[in-house]
MFS family permease
Amino acid sequence: MTQTTDLRGTIPERGSRNGSGGPALAVILLGQFMAILDVNIVNVALPTMRADLHASGAGLQLIVAGYVISYAVLLITGARLGGVAGHRRLYHLGLASFTAASLACGLAPSTGTLVLFRFLQGAGAAMLTPQVMSMIQRDFAGAARARALGFYSAVIAGGTVVGQAAGGLLVGTDLFGAGWRTVFLVNVPIGAALLLAGPRVLPRDEAALRTRPLRTELDLPGLLTLAPAVLLLVVPLIMGHELGWPLWGWAALAASAAFAAAFAAVERRAAAAAGRPLISARVLRAPLLAPACVAIVIAPASWGTFLFTTTLHLQGDLRMSPLESGLAFVPCVTAFGLVGLNWQRLPARWHRRAVPAGFAVAGAGYLFVGPLAGGGLAYEALTVVIGFGLGVMPIVMTTALRHVPPGDAADASGLLLTLMQLAQVIGIATVGTLFLTLAESGGSTRHAEYGTGWALASTVLFGALCALSLTRDRTPARR
């Protein structure tokens, strides 16, 4: 067995660096859970917000989009800051910022202030979440790391679905007459508890040997070209349908492509000058990372779109309440979590073969979204099949990081998390727009489920073909 040494020192090949592996994992995953929860928890509260704040449709869109935009734009920055200043330190700073912004959101007196605080909340999440995967990579090894990544993926899936159910429950119970404000205020006691527990259980950051100036470590030219590239991509995709796809949206998408090309040029120049690019070529050249990234894009895109469109259908033609529609996803996410937590029980030679097989199962399930859209037990069983198939995501993530050295964990985690976040936005903006268009033209969400199911099936089956390359790896994994 070999050991890998980076600027932080040598990481031994055992379950965790100290005896607090279990409590430490619980603390960081709870923080991750809150960040994922807040992507979706506001959705069912929007009608109440509109009435209470007299918000316009565009204002409601910005309340939702503000969090996602700053979260996606700053994820890689947060990952790099963690590598520079310490993952434990940045996790606590991000958690404190997120908790304070949640309190401010809950007390916001107007739509404008709520939008501002949602941007700040997303920025806190962007500092917090990249540290989670980096600390898993740094502090866990071997089977313990694979189990931790399984819990990580289950938390992501659970946070998405619990967000929908919890939002309905909190708004429906109207605790202390707070109405929609409870969907934000619920984060405050949880965040405070994690801030108290974190210093006691999280391993301390070991001093990094910095050989370059801070501005070089952060790759400021890269940040200044990447941020507008992501921002100009996300804003029109999120707001385009609501505003009727105006001309400025298409101009923003074109500008995003120009900034993306500039970012690639800046990164090549930084690498040629022996600098430290924001996304290093070494990370991108890691075996299996590229095909794994394709799967990491396709699975969250289809998953996020499925949750979005199915929620609209459940509350549309099937006339479920927000709470009922959220609870309807429990069997689906349970299947997702069970696969994510138990795939290691399969023989090792089956692990990567399970990825294209799982995608194929999910793709076949999507084909029946339309025919079974009338609801009932068959529809619930179908969501279980889809969740079961996409439950192979932990295998994809483990494979993507298989050959990434611990010293590159911050860059890799930022890249993967940004791809996952943007994938959901792109999926909802494209297939979600198809669903809304079909529902409007056909006068029925059930009618829209047919075209949506075919689009999702095509996407995931393409992912299954791409994932076949993951089965041919013969390179020993880094630890």
Q: What stands out?
A: The chain has three domains: 21-202, 220-277, 285-473. The first helix runs from residue 21 to 40. Strands lie at 4-6, 9-11.
